[in-house]
Design a protein that fits this description.
about 120 residues, Rossmann fold, 3 helices, about 30% helix
């Protein structure tokens, strides 16, 4: 991956739920635009490792970090691992759920929410 023409070169992206499905596709897309990607997973280490391997095989930077984002202590560890891996906190974070995708720019939370067709729209 050449970072000279990539829109997200030098950025760190954190994608929760990135071990499969839409989250994995978002992680791959962000990496293809030059972002260093944190592939967050709750239980599917194998899926997260597969996504990381696909990104790095294309010349991108990625790391898998297990964390349950509903638990504050896991979220703290997730951000600590992100900083350890890439030297800084993410400038972009996406949260993928069955019913929506949230795109947020750090540190301004929330930025925008895009409903999916997978289920009812959550109440925020």
């Amino acid at each position: 991956m050449s970072t000279t023409t990539k829109k997200l070169a030098g950025k760190v992206a954190l994608v929760t739920g990135a071990s499969k499905g839409i989250g994995a596709e978002i992680a791959r897309a962000l990496a293809s635009e030059g972002a260093s990607v944190v592939v967050n997973y709750s239980s599917s280490k194998q899926g997260a490792d597969k996504v990381v391997n696909e990104i790095t095989a294309q010349g991108g930077k990625a790391v898998a970090v297990q964390a349950d984002v509903s638990r504050p202590e896991d979220v703290k560890r997730l951000f600590a691992e992100t900083k350890k891996a890439f030297g800084r906190l993410p400038s972009l974070a996406t949260r993928v759920e069955a019913s929506s995708i949230s795109v947020r720019s750090w540190p301004r939370w929330p930025r925008r929410k895009v409903p999916s067709t997978a289920g009812p729209r959550p109440r925020w």
